[in-house]
Q: What sequence folds into this?
């Protein structure tokens, strides 16, 4: 009855969706702050390119670890409460950055603690998606996931604040939007109607043994890992590869990142219609081509255009994967979202680390970009093979009609009965 009340706007709880979007937005903003500030921090702390790459990557690794924790905690105590706890903890690294950071070790500590902000992914998406029926979950989670637009605020404002007031001021000013959103989140967010799950070792083992968990994690390490890794490192890349100013490099990064941020909900919407599998194929193949072309060192204007396209494809790919997750694992959505999201964080950690090492070894980022493109191409080939297997192992009508592969043959009669009801 609820779904028939004129579509998406009446199918769920809109205030919670907005709260989840804002929470993810500001969390993503502070999560990747070290990247846009990296040119200033490298100069202040005399970092090598490898050290700079590791510094920008540590928050992504921290996000991978904390997503597992917040995902399971959300299933246990509720996602609304977990989100409020996450925002409270996020103040700690910002305070350290604003008041007392004076050694590279402090930067690494800040980066690790900023991982809690990155872990917001495991809370915001299931909080939003849990209020919507399967027909609208891809769009709902895509909208909430568009909170990765927080990257735009970091890449645009952080270098400008650092240029005018110093890098420590950027950490201090970031506390203001966190405080505002925490208040709005407390007032607007409502716990999803699904019952809370008390996670057991047996349940965790069952989820980890599922092959779909591993495959979704691998694919997400390519799509989200590629997006967040580039979003973190693009300011450094444009500044050092093309010799533009630090502020201009942040502006170029913002232009590129806007594609992935805004097209994520489009990816969820398209996945609801053509299937996540088909969309992922296009995203991985197109991204591999775009990054491979950037590795050829084209003029900066061409590089911006290619990266804009590539990041847009990754954004849509992210939406595609999280259209599949809630339908395969509805009872452990927070846990699986945390596991898959952790893989995305690991992928993001690897990318800037590899690019930094390539820069120190070769004097250019081109070799690292070739490796990134090759990895995306491998993901495309793997997905083709998985598609062949899924078409044999999963209900053919499900694969053909929606591209959703995540229901076993023995569940197909139950699904058909639900559709008829």
A:
């Amino acid at each position: 009855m609820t779904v028939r009340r004129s579509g998406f706007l009446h199918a769920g709880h809109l205030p919670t969706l907005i709260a989840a979007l804002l929470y993810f937005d500001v969390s993503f903003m502070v999560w990747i702050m070290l990247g846009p500030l990296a040119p200033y921090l490298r100069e202040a702390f005399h970092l090598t390119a490898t050290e700079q790459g590791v510094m920008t990557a540590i928050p992504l690794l921290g996000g991978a670890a904390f997503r597992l924790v917040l995902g399971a905690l959300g299933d246990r105590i509720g996602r609304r409460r977990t989100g409020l706890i996450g925002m409270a903890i996020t103040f700690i690294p910002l305070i350290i950055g604003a008041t007392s950071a004076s050694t590279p070790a402090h930067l690494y500590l800040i980066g690790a603690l900023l991982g809690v902000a990155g872990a917001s992914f495991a809370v915001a998406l299931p909080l939003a998606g849990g209020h919507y029926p399967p027909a609208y979950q891809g769009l709902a989670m895509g909208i909430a996931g568009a909170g990765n637009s927080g990257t735009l605020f970091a890449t645009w404002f952080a270098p400008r604040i650092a240029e005018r007031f110093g890098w420590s001021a950027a950490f201090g000013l970031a506390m203001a939007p966190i405080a505002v959103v925490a208040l709005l989140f407390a007032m607007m967010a409502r716990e999803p109607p699904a019952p809370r799950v008390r996670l057991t070792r047996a349940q965790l083992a069952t989820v980890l043994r599922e092959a779909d968990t591993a495959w979704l994690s691998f694919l997400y390490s390519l799509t989200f890992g590629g997006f967040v890794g580039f979003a973190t490192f693009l300011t450094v890349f444009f500044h050092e590869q093309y010799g533009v100013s630090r502020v201009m490099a942040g502006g170029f990064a913002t232009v590129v990142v806007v594609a992935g941020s805004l097209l994520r909900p489009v990816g969820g919407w398209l996945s609801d219609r053509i299937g996540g599998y088909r969309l992922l194929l296009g995203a991985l193949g197109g991204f591999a081509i775009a990054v491979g072309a950037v590795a050829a060192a084209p003029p900066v204007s061409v590089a911006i255009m290619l990266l804009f396209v590539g990041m847009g494809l990754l954004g849509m790919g992210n939406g595609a994967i999280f259209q599949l997750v809630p339908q395969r694992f509805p009872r452990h959505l927070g846990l699986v979202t945390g596991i898959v999201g952790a893989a995305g964080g690991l992928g993001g950690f690897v990318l800037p680390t590899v690019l930094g090492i390539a820069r120190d070894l070769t004097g250019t980022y081109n070799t690292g970009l070739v490796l990134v493109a090759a990895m995306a191409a491998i993901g495309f080939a793997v997905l083709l093979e998985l598609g062949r297997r899924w078409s044999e192992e999963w209900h053919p009508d499900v694969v053909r009609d929606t591209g959703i592969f995540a229901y076993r043959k023995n569940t197909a009669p139950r699904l058909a009965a639900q559709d008829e009801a």
Remarks:
- The chain has one domain: 8-194+206-408.
- Residues 1-5, 395-421 have pLDDT under 50 and may be disordered.
